[in-house]
Request: fold
Amino acid sequence: MKATRPAIRQNVSRRSVLGLLGFGAATAALTPTFLKTARAQNQTQTQPSQPASTQPSQIITKEIPRTKEKLPAIGLGTFMTFDALSNQPRDRLQQVMRRFWDAGGRVVDTSLLYGMSEVNVGEFARTLGLTNDLFIAANKTWATGEYLGDRSQAQRQLEQSLTRLSRDRIDVMQVHSLVNVN
Reply:
């Protein structure tokens, strides 16, 4: 008598196959990065670290076509992280901004929709003397207006952001939604 194996039916969806392919591709792409990071950490543990100001800078920058200004490709996001009330400990947040600046960071993304983040960015930048040196991408305007052509809510949001950030301009104004605005 011949031994037979029970038939196992497997339903493999296109979604699961694509998911596995994506996972495989991501693993293949990220493995060199993880290996490089691990080697760097091993070297750091065996060698005394240099102060941040003497470490060679390898910051990737991108040029703004219109102004030719070069900015770091990576910025500091403030959603939730910088949302701390003034009566809460915030020294660590100011230290984050200082280290970000010292490491060559310049672009900060914030919004009045992020609670106290915008206020804290303005205060820390002022305290650190960076107010006009940071490149601020802010506001995330969400205005409906009360009638067709009403831009008063968007204007008030911009003015509020400028006040909170202690600035006379925002470098990039981001818009989530404008309704009834011409």
